[in-house]
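TL;DR need structure tokens for one chain.
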Amino acid sequence: MDGTRPQVLRYAAFTRDPAGGNPAGVVPDAAGLREEEMLSIAAEVGYSETAFLTAPPDGPGRSFTVRYFAPETEVPFCGHATVAAAVALAERIGPGPLEFATRSGPVPVEVEQEADGTLRATLTSVEPYVEQVPDHDVSQALAALHWRPDELDPALPPRIAFAGARHLVLAAATRARLAALDYDFDALRAFMTARDLTTLHLVWRESKHVFHVRDPFPVGGVREDPATGSAAAAFGAYLRELGLVDATATVTLHQGQDMGRPALLRVDLHEGDRRVRVSGTAVRIPR
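>> reply
TL;DR here they are.
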């Protein structure tokens, strides 16, 4: 702590370049902070999310309670801030297993050091689910996005997917449609708030196991998230539920290119385990 203000670390997740990926704030010691203080700090940091960690009362260990705040709201789970927080902790206490207690449930994270010294974190999601979306909800979402129904990929139908937070998956038929993102911020925020959605997960399929994705995040006061680990986990569950990949599969997601912050997310599915694993690197953002 520095006076009455906690230390805030800044990391870029799902990248090896501090100018890429998704920036996240990490408060390694949030003990004693009230909810309104955490929200204020997240707004001051200005990233899509900041993770606030509290160690268990029985002393130092590798288990932590984590809360995630966007500039305007708390979210139940955030993948990129989890990766950032895990790497920040590994720099302090060494690579290895970590356990995060989140509002959505326990999230194990394994941090490994690669040959070049880069730290890679792999989170294992809570139990996911995928559900149908009413046609009128899809129509409202498309209207707020300024997308036409014929601009969707019929092979990837709309669904709500959850792996710690709820995301509406919509698939663009072309890369150009995905690239041209210009939506009605207030209309989409109202639509998402009414349905407890964290982001819209907009995807374009390059190949069976490679996708380009974007995530509008107006409910958090952020126009777009450069890399969204919780949505990546939910999308892994979506692909498995719809039989679009094998029971054991690795999927690569490219995100952030259209924002000038390229990010790379790896999604792993394992037969016999409904949980989804999402991995990526993270690096400290120099002050």
